[in-house]
Amino acid sequence: MLDLDLIELKLKASSWREVIEKLGCNMKSKGYVLESYVDAVISREEKLPTGLPIDDFSVAIPHTDPGHVNESAIAIATLEEPVEFNMMIDPEQKTKVQLVFLLAVKNPNAQVTLLKTLMSVFQNKELLINIQNAESKQEIKKLLDCLAV
């Protein structure tokens, strides 16, 4: 179940770090993650970037080890303006990301299942555009009913 408090519409951010910090602070304030979570996600993103271009639309799925997580959750941001993330497939290249799914997964086995589910979401470009254009958090939640954490 998605927590509406972890969904940000038209988030203003100037960098991928700022996106992770804002979403991670929301998770921290709700008790989903430990104090160490945001720094751990940033550190991992620097080494193993998660920007994923899908045709002319890009998403990012930053995450870190379960040791920084109290309870599984997903924070989602539609971005007011795209933010550059390094690409997962070619870390030397950048992609302008419009949607960010910040993952906090407590059970390592569940992470594989969640990533598979997200990949099926990412293969549906119409769904991604509908999420990006959503006018409410409830609309995003309804569009992503398939996600379970």
UniProtKB/TrEMBL annotation:
It holds the Pfam family PTS_EIIA_2. The keyword Membrane does not apply. InterPro entries: PTrfase/Anion_transptr (IPR016152), PTS_EIIA_type-2_dom (IPR002178), PTS_SugarTrans_NitroReg (IPR051541). Keywords: Sugar transport, Transport. This is PTS sugar transporter subunit IIA. The keyword Transport applies. It comes from the Bacteria. Residues 1-147 form the PTS EIIA type-2 domain. SUPFAM superfamilies: Phoshotransferase/anion transport protein.
